[in-house]
Every structure is written in C-alpha cells, then in structure tokens.
Amino acid sequence: MYLFEHRIPAYNVQQQELWKMRHSKQSHCPEWDDRRSWDQRKHSSSRKRRKRSHSSGQESKHYKPNHVSESHYLDDRAINERDHHDRRYVEEYRNDFCEVYDHRHYHRDYEKSHHHHYSKSSGRSRKSSHKRKHKRHHCSSHQSHSKSHRRKRSRSVEDDEEGHLICESGDVLRARYEIVATLGEGAFGKVVECIDHDMRGMHVAVKIVKNVGRYREAARSEIQVLEHLNTMDPSSTFRCVQMLEWFDHHGHVCIVFELLGLSTYDFIKENSFLPFHINDIRNMAYQICQSINFLHHNKLTHTDLKPENILFVESDYIVKYNAKMKRDERTLKNTDIKVVDFGSATFDDEHHSTLVSTRHYRAPEVILALGWSQPCDVWSIGCILIEYYLGFTVFQTHDSKEHLAMMERILGPLPAHMIKKSRKHYFHHDQLDWDEHSSAGRYVRRRCKPLKEFMHCQDTDHQSLFDLVRRMLEYDPAKRITLDEALQHPFFEPLKK
C-alpha cells in the first residue's frame, strides 16, 4: 500500500497557534530574530556541466547541471490579505521577478500581469536563453539598480533606495551563510545561494526580502504556511519543499530553503521541448498526486500548480543521440521531485480569491467564477501531465473565452448547469458565444483536437494515462476524480508491484 504510508498527524497545539496567527486581523509572528532551526537536510549542491556532444557517433554521456531552479524561492505569492490596501501590496510581492518567454506559441501568462517565473535557467527571460545559459551572477551593488542611491543603516549594512540589501559574494549572513552567487532578484527582494558553514558547507538558497514593511508582512504569511508544512511533515515524506529556517538580518526577513535542481518546465525547455518518457511521467505523477493529496487532507489548496513549480531533487541526466529526431536527447537519471511555491496556498476556511492559478492550468470553475476548492488543483495536475506527455501545453491562450473554446474543442461541451450558474458574459442562449470562423476560431480549431487524438500510440500505458488525465479534466469539480482515487488508478499499478 503506497498511499500515505505515514499517518498524517492531526493539528497540535503549536499548529493551532499558527492558525490563530494566520487568521487574526493583525498576524502576529514571533520576534523576527528568533531562530527557527531544523534538522540537517540533504546536500544538493550544484555541479559543473561538461560540454555536450552533438555528434551521433558519441556514446551516451552523464551530465550534472550546474544550475538550480529557484522558482520556489522567488515565486512565493503571499496569502490573500483581508483588506484591499494590504492585498495590493501582497500582489506586488507575488509578482516579483516577472519574466515572459515565447517559444513559437509557447507563451505563459498569469491573469492581470500576475505571470511570474523566477528560475535562473528558465526561458522566460527577455534575454536569449542561450546567452544566459549556465551563467551565475554574483551578488553585488550592480544588481541593486541603484548604485548612487543607498540608504545607510549602519557602517556595515546598506540598502539601495528600493530596500534591497546590498551584498557581495563573500558576505556572510548571521555569521553562518556565506553568499556565493545570486540566483535571482525581484520586486520582493533577492535570492542568493549560500554555503552553510554550520552544516559542513552545505549549499542552501536564502531569500532576502526587502526592508520594506509591506514585503515583511507578506513574508509572514509565507513563513506561516511553510512552518505549517514543516510541522505536519518534518521529514518531507510528502515532497513539499522545506524551509530550513528564517531569521532577521537588519530588517530583512531571510528565509532559508533547501537547494533543489531544475524545474520540470526548465528540463523540457533545455531538452528542446521533447516530452518525458511515459515511465518518467508515471513516477513524477504519482509523487505529485501524493504531495498534493497531503495538502488536501490538511485542508490546503495549492492553487498554483504548474511545471515550473515541480522541481527535481537532482537534475542529472544522460545524453543519447536520437536518430529519429536527429538530435541529442536528455534522459533523467532520477525522477524524484518536490512541489514548491506555497505562497498562494489557501486553507479551506480562508478567504478564496476569485482568480487563482496560472492561465494554462486554470480550472473552468475558476474561469467561470463559480467558486473553487481542492478540485482546482486536480485540474492543474491533469494539464501538467498532458504537457509532460506532449512537451507543450494544450491550453495556449491569454483570453478566457478562447480558453473555454479550447476546452470544448478538446473535452466537449461545457455542462449546462455550469453555464447557467456563471455570471460571466461568455455565453449566448446557454452556449459559448464563439465564432469558429474568426481568426481566433481558426486558431483554436487548428491547434486543438479531441483529447484522445493527442495520443502517440494505443498501447495500454498510453490509454491508461489518458484515462487518468480525462478524469482529472472533468468539467464539474464535484465529479472530478479526487487524488485519493487517482492514486488507485490503474496507470500507477506498475509502481506497486
């Protein structure tokens, strides 16, 4: 029996206190200089990658990527605040380090400019990914964007005019964390890779939040969620990224994370958008379902699942020449993953924002403003799995009505009861108000087709995967497969032998 080998613990007294803090009008956290330490974590240091051969005559080679994804350090959007004023600042915290990538039609967004991706090796940069590839930027005053405008707080600690900590490679935080590189920078602050000298040189990622009140408050909500997850699953059995500790550094909230490998999106991108092998999809899908099922059993909804937020623990791979594709192909050596970015995770009894999820993984009930809960995560997982299978997302759009048209093209008509319940003006006479002969209509018809027509072959594994995906992409959230049920699906039977 693979499902929940370890019993999910009930809420304890400490967790109830966290709950009170999270739901109070003025969230109270312990003093910011109170150290929150955890047991020693697995060492996941980055390694240099050898130059790849493009020759068909070369034997398979093993590679260890020299970059790690910091999506989970930067993409931590704060929990919904109670009043509009606070929420506006939280949105700034959520939108940090916004980057966009366009690979043919492969473009992602987050509604109302909420798209955000923060992986160093991500293709979302406006710069060429080739130019940025494997580049490590050292933390310096150059990156503050404000060389001449600094707020001096003490003789040894300075901020730029925006509140970023000015730091350099070799600087030490809390007499423990030596900065070796900058992984990313955004509106909220910056993320640096550090050597933890108290843990025998283990490499970690430290998120340094701006010394600005609104960002400190947003970081509190993030920390409370991360502490909750650490309390409920201290050994990370259910594969949620671990916060190792947090501390205050001269007014800057600093959150220490374990260092992980590439995101699943980055791996696909760096593999020329070739899809994952079906056995790898099976392994990753099972872990994702276990992880998110753990959240659901603990009254949490992630709300922002996407390939960028699924990270490999290690990104080592083997390169083989694919004669059919006439190019090198990367195959993972280890498919262990962790789920990241819990900044927008929402408890069942909290305020639920109308709009959640990144566009391509957004459930129909969210688009139609019908209310949402845990099933919206299941829809997102279905979208992720089909993307792993194809190498691209099937719902490639920025418009809600076009998104619904794509759904109908792939999955069939929307249920009448959902159409009638929605107050959105997407329908006319209980049908989607959509012109199939328009430019957008032709685009949808050309790009989309019934779900089963995306299958590469008709063998049992492929049919089983598509059956699971179809159940995850059920329009009606009340009828959508639960993750308890998904983990018992025949697609996962080979893992239980």
UniProtKB/TrEMBL annotation:
SUPFAM superfamilies: Protein kinase-like (PK-like) (SSF56112)
Keywords, comma-separated and alphabetical: ATP-binding, Kinase, Nucleotide-binding, Nucleus, Phosphoprotein, Serine/threonine-protein kinase, Transferase, Tyrosine-protein kinase
Composition bias type Basic residues, residue spans: 43-54, 113-154
UniProt EC number: 2.7.12.1
Region (Disordered): 29-79, 109-162
Positions with a binding annotation for ATP: K207
Chief location category: nucleus
Positions of the Protein kinase domain: 177-492
GO biological process: regulation of RNA splicing
EC class (word): transferase
Keyword ATP-binding belongs to the record: yes
Feature: compositional bias, Basic and acidic residues: 29-42, 59-79
Protein name from the UniProt record: dual-specificity kinase
Gene that specifies this protein: CLK4
